[in-house]
Amino acid sequence: MMKIKIREMSYSEYPMLADFLYEAIFQRDENNLLPKSVINQPELKIYIEAFGEREHDYCFCAEVDQKVVGAVWTRCINGFGHVEEGTPEFAVSLFKAYRSRGIGTALMKRMLELLKSKGYKKTSLAVQKDNYAVKMYQSVGFEIVDENEEEYIMVCSFR
Fold this sequence. Notes:
With 159 residues, the protein is of the alpha+beta class. Helices cover 21% and strands 29% of the residues. A hairpin with a 3-residue loop joins strand 6 (143-147) and strand 7.
């Protein structure tokens, strides 16, 4: 049985978010992957640029055998899942070998607990409509509030 540790990601580990941002991109065709440089596009770079230097930046990581294998992070940005000012936007990803093991769900639950304890009213994200993660997001309390041709905009409200 794999022992998973969810913990705050340290500032010195934030450069790893570039890898996790790339892993967060839903790529349908495993034989025709986007180049890693895609994360330098402005609409993606805002998720990680100068992370940890803004008031609403929060990040947890998942560790297996002292190796960081996944991360969840939020920040208040005008990203793909933006719904309103002051609502943090979620990003979560795992290295492929660690998916479908409950790690993403554990990361998300930990972040939702933190955001609720900090007094946020809700959090949001965007997800490709055919991404298997839609069900995971719904299982932790996210609901579809809007959509475009490609994506759902999902919100989790804290009561």
